Amino acid sequence: MPTIPVLVVAWANRPAGIQGGPDIKHLKLFVDHEQMTPILSSIACNLDAGILSASLPLFAEERVEAIEWSFDTLFNYKEIPSWFLELLHTYSDAGRLVGHGVFFSLFSGRFLPEQKAWLEALRKMAGTFRFDHITEHFGFMTGKDFHSGAPLNIPYSDVTLRIGRDRLMRIQDAAQCPVGLENLAFSYSADEVKRHGEFLEMLVKPVNGFIILDLHNLYCQLHNFSMPYEQLIGLYPLHRVREIHISGGSWEDAASGQGRTIRRDTHDDAVPTVVFDLLRRTLPLCPNLKYVVMEQLGTGLQTEGSKQGFYNDFITMQEIVQAYRPQPQQAALNAFLPVQAVSIAGRPEEDEILYAQQLELSGILEQASSCREAQDTLATSGLAGTAWHTERWDADMLETAIRIAQKWKRQQA
Fold first, then answer.
1. What is the separation of C-alpha 403 from the centre of its chain, rounded to a whole number of angstroms?
2. Measured between alpha carbons, how far is residue 230 from residues 191, 194, 278, 398 in Å?
3. From the CB of residue 118, how many other CB atoms can be counted at a distance below 10 Å?
4. Which of 39, 133, 274, 399 is deepest in the core (most CB within 10 A)?
5. Hey, what domains does the chain have and what are their CATH numbers?
6. How many CB atoms lie within 10 A of CB 381?
7. DSSP H helical ranges for 205-303
8. CB environment 193-219: b (16+ within 10 A), e (fewer)
9. DSSP reduced 3-state for 115
10. CA distances from 227 to 223, 231, 234, 330 (A)
11. pLDDT (0 to 100) of residue 4
């Protein structure tokens, strides 16, 4: 019977530093892929002591059917531990490795040297590993170089559409596999929330790309803008969903008071029950779904209780996936490869006005001492009266953006 080898990394007497080399034992387990569901239960697995140690029991029980790797978090590593490379190659060889980018900053108005280097590194990495697909986050990164800040929303305009399409084509050319984008957790206004799905469809269509539907991100939007699930889910191109994310997050009290809370996509806690409910409701709506991935940051997996919670959450996710029995496909699943060869001849798309606005917004968010100060500054800035529609931004969401930007700035200091 055909089998898929799964590498288990057993940690004993693990030191604090991951590069230090714990006592690693390699065990080969086997998963009968004929018994697997058509949708693969997966984890976001990176070179992180917390997530790796929490995942060990799941590997040992042969439950992890695929892994998602944030490949660009290791671009600056001079050497990757051999045992981690073996883990990646095991899933890569089985066609069960997907890559998830973090730092490309898709919508930066200027094509930056860091983006060129990112693409070159991806091209090299795609020659080493067999990625079943590559994805990136939606938005642009705050900060002066757009590679050390917080991912935030952009205006939905012809300019950003043109730049986003150009960057996706370049990612596809470098990776030579399907490419996709993840829906955003943060928005400044309800209008942005309602337009997000349509804009994602327009972005990925030229490369026949796909969408990661992050259900915790969706939960953030549902809560923060008091929208019903049926209304919002219908605004997404669900036929383009190839991957679903589930994760946890955190609550913040809104600056305006009045008892309002803001849901944040911080990935540092267990998966809420409501997100599991969203998974059950969403599975039947996504005919081209292949992966369901559970995410959690290693910083939230430092205690035995949190690791047990991670294990329990994965089991719950997997049981929901296995209980879902999709109807037999009438046609082949969308492979999400370009219908025509992607051409990236010529200079990258850029817009200096957008670039200047992004720099200005980053500065405002990182320096404002209050929401009121940010609103006053925005009213006389280069963003006023533009496609950013800053005049319509929800005050509590603007305050949240300030907190996000300033937290990232402190982390990079």
1. 20
2. 16, 12, 11, 26
3. 22
4. 133
5. 35-351 (3.20.20.150)
6. 18
7. 215-224, 229-233, 273-282
8. bbebbebbbebbebbbbbbbbbbbbbb
9. helix
10. 7, 7, 12, 34
11. 36
What is the three-class DSSP state of 366?
helix
Closest CA to 175 of 225, 120, 223, 137: 120
How far apart CA 314 and CA 312 sit, in angstroms, is: 5
The DSSP bridge partners found for residue 63 are none
**Assigned token pair, 76:** 């600056």
The single residue listed with the structure tokens 């405002």 is 364
Judged against a pLDDT cut of 50, whether residue 35 lies above it is answered with no
Instruction: Measure the CA–CA gap between 154 and 14, rounded to whole angstroms.
Output: 42
What is the reported pLDDT for 328?
67
Looking at residue 195, its pLDDT comes to 97
CA distance 399 to 328: 47
251-277 pLDDT, tens digit per residue, is 999 987 778 999 999 999 999 999 999
Measured in degrees and rounded to the nearest 5, phi and psi for residue 200 equal -60, -45
Q: Mean of the pLDDT values across residues 43-58?
A: 92
Q: What is the DSSP letter of 371?
A: H
pLDDT by residue (tens digit) across 85-119?
A: 999 999 999 999 999 999 899 999 999 999 999 99
Instruction: Provide CB contacts within 8 A for 26, sequence distance 6+.
Output: 7, 8, 9, 10, 83, 86
Residue-level pLDDT at 147: 60
Q: How far is the C-alpha of 247 from the C-alpha of 195, rounded, in Å? A: 23
**What radius of gyration do the chain's Cα atoms show?**
21
Handedness of CA 47, 89, 210, 282 (dihedral sign): negative
Global confidence as pTM: 0.91
Output the six-digit token pair for 1.
Answer: 């019977």
* Distances in whole angstroms, Cα of residue 22 to Cα of each of 173, 331, 358, 411: 37, 48, 43, 27
Q: Which two tokens stand for residue 312?
A: 């329990």
Tell me if residue 32 falls in helix, strand or coil.
Answer: strand
Look up residue 62 and give its two tokens: 């042969």
CA distance 223 to 261: 9
Contact call for residues 50 and 300 (beta carbons, < 8 A): yes
Pairing relationship of beta strands 40-44 and 291-294 according to DSSP bridges: parallel
Secondary structure of residue 151 in the 3-state scheme = strand
Tokens of 37: 């569901």
Terminus-to-terminus CA distance in the chain, angstroms?
54
Region for 61 from its dihedrals, namely left if φ exceeds 0, alpha if ψ lies in -120 to 50, beta otherwise = alpha
- Nearest partner of 239 among 275, 200, 206, 277, judged by Cα: 200
